[in-house]
Amino acid sequence: MRSEVKEPDASGAALVTVAADADAAQASGRAADDVVHHARRRRFSILGGFASAVLFAAALYVLWRTVSQLDAADVRAAFSGVTGRQTCIALLLTCTSYVLLTGYDFLALRQMRLRVPYRTTALASFTSYAVSFTLGFPLVTAGTVRYWIYSAKGLRASQVATLTVIAGITFWLGMGVVLAWSLVREAGAIALLAHTRIAMNQIAGLVVFAVVAGYLVWVSIKHRAATIQGWRLELPGFRLTIGQMILGAGDVCAGAGVLYVLLPAGHGLSYETFLAIYVCACMLGIASHAPGGLGVFEATILVALSGLPGERVLGALLLFRLYYYLMPFVVALLLLGAHEVRKRLRARAWAAPP
């Protein structure tokens, strides 16, 4: 019997070599693309940070110029001149806004098909927003507070991150609906305050409305999901998105109402007109990355309402900060402290021998 040993095929070896070289070139190309993408993201991040810093500095300058022309005694008088009725309505609207905020987490958990008791949802939502509104950096502060509470119910960090993003979408949908409505409905009054053209305001409102409506149609046609660096985010469908719009708009209207009722009497400003001013001030505050839009929000309101007594407007803004930001922040810290004490007591009770 004769056995045959075949010599290696030179053409086959060449093909293997070419394939290996192609794989190496492809890997090298992906690495180069990653480097370019990272560099581009870094440039955009630097530009975004620079733009936010410029906006914050400009707002502080405008705020300083405006406040420096006011009389401190008049500001104190305006601060103390707020009636008990105004205070009660402002506190009631603050509570309404934060109750609606708990619905953000409720809808997000429903989208994620997770069952969490509402008392836990309310605690996590209220405390996370109260803390992030005051300290700023909501993705970090709100996400941390949420994870601290939700992790005890078995939620993973990725699920908490998904929940936070969906809640953020609810907020922006609500802002968009309110802004579009007020720009179209009160285009003339806003034009007098902002020194713009009526047609420009109406066009801007219609554009915002088109964006919101386009998003609604987009998520309604079929199931949508966004993938961010390997992280998959399933977006709510038609019914939940409608719920997000209604809930977000209600929250924005309640928050705006807190400041509106604190404004000096006889200002002659309709609530719908004020909504556009409030939403724009909030957006500029968010863009500045200042905690709670501090400085930027006040400067925008003072400039937009320059026809009103500046001392009284500033007094209303100070009370708004107290009622809508500082008081909920203190309550949130107390609730978080009580939550931690309760967890430790339960842990000790379970660890104690029978």
TrEMBL record:
Positions in coiled-coil regions: none
Keyword Membrane set for record: yes
UniProt-listed InterPro entries: L-PG_synthase/AglD (IPR022791)
Keyword Membrane on entry: yes
Domain of life: Bacteria
Membrane topology: Multi-pass membrane protein
Compartments in which it is found: Cell membrane
Organism: Chelatococcus reniformis
Keywords assigned: Cell membrane, Membrane, Transmembrane, Transmembrane helix
The protein's name: Membrane protein
Transmembrane portions of the chain: 44-64, 84-107, 128-149, 161-183, 203-221, 241-263, 275-297, 317-338
Signal peptide: none
Principal location: membrane
One term under GO cellular component: plasma membrane
Pfam families according to UniProt: LPG_synthase_TM
